[in-house]
Amino acid sequence: MSQLCPNVFSVIHYTATLIEDLADQLIQDLAQPGSDPFTKDLVITSSAGISRWLAQRLSLTLGSSGHQDGICAGVDFLTLGAFTAMMRPGKSPWSANALVPDLLTTVEALIDTEEFSQVKTHLKTSESRPRRRMSFVRLTASRFSSYVSWRPDMLRNWNQGHFVDWDGSMLSPAQLWQPLAWNALCDTRGLTPDQDCANICTAIEAAVFPYARTAVFCPDPITETEQRILACTAHQNPVNLYSRQSASPDNEDLHRVISRMSPLSACTATVLDELCEISVDLEPHKDPAPSLLHRIQQGIVSGQITTGDLDSSVVLCPTSGDQHVETLADLLIQCLNEDPSLEPREILVLVNHMDTMAETLEAFFYPDQSQDANPRHRIRASIAANKPGNQPAVDLLFFLITLVNGRATSEDLFRLARFPAVMNHFGFSESDIDKIATLISNSGIRWGVNPGHRANHNMDCFAQNTWMAGLGRMVLGVGLRE
User: Residue 191 half-sphere exposure, CB side, CA atoms within 13 Å?
Assistant: First the structure.
């Protein structure tokens, strides 16, 4: 290591195409005894699911006699968010909930300024919707919180008086209220995100780190604050970074993390090149019989998927347009006829350009359960596509038709009340819609219009939690007020 910074440990970067190869390398590293057998190791992952998968894989090898009878002990698993919270003294001041009180005071103080003229016009209607001001503040706080994580450069420019957007372009006059509110918020708190991050890094460097080794497993996505905090741990113990090649080509992640070393330790920049040299490309795992999932993944990476890579559970349909839908229907019928135990819910169909194919698919696979119906039209299909509606009356009609044949959930009842035609007919306002949502939740409505509507599900003898049962509770509550 460099003599200028003797307190900085090495950072070893492992890259591989498959996550299993990275896990095997992590197992080899953790299998090596540490300097203190009573000090735990730390593994930082991107999600709790990855942590559980790693723990199970480690337990098959660590301490094993060769018969997959090992144990994963002396290793703590933390997500990036949990690790950041552990390193931070106290709660995060940049979460949406923490920003709301100060931001509410800031908005009240700036509401009469020229930059807030459109905001003031928007909030003037708060008499008809009393909760609009609080909703506006909560939405703004959530936006500022996401800016802290993913737009730190933009916030730095705002703090310096340069009111630019995330891409460097100047903000429009209608958007100037955001940097004005942000700067006033930072002045009220006497703290900026950069200063807060520097305080965390200082605390890490001065603290006694309770772990012998640190491993960062697949760290993407990663915010700038998390980058700096992870880099600061290199002052405490060795850090190994495990990432996939497709996610971090040419050591970009390593350069980004190491270059985010604590601002108070500028000397670490002199060892950046030395640290980046400690990089290992793992040899791909030689699997004599790769699974179907592996073959599909490799085909997606290479852009070449052939029928030879698939088995009978995966079918390629290289057609387009209406012919594609007809061929798809024939394939589904063939699969269902060949395997009587196969259920429609067990079939997944992936389609390119779903936004243009959704209407054709819905029209073709509209359920027809009559005895003389075409077999193609008796296939139950659910189209996972969101298409914008431009005809409210037609949308309402199709919604009601779908409602009769569906489960009629509490969400459907709320959607029905929000249709413009329904709101105009019954005179509902936006504040009334908020009240209706609360009433639906408190009334216990779950699904089904009435017991008869549940007959298709053999539940017609149960009236609990239907629309009519919930409405009955509401009427009873009105008639028997305390």
Answer: 14
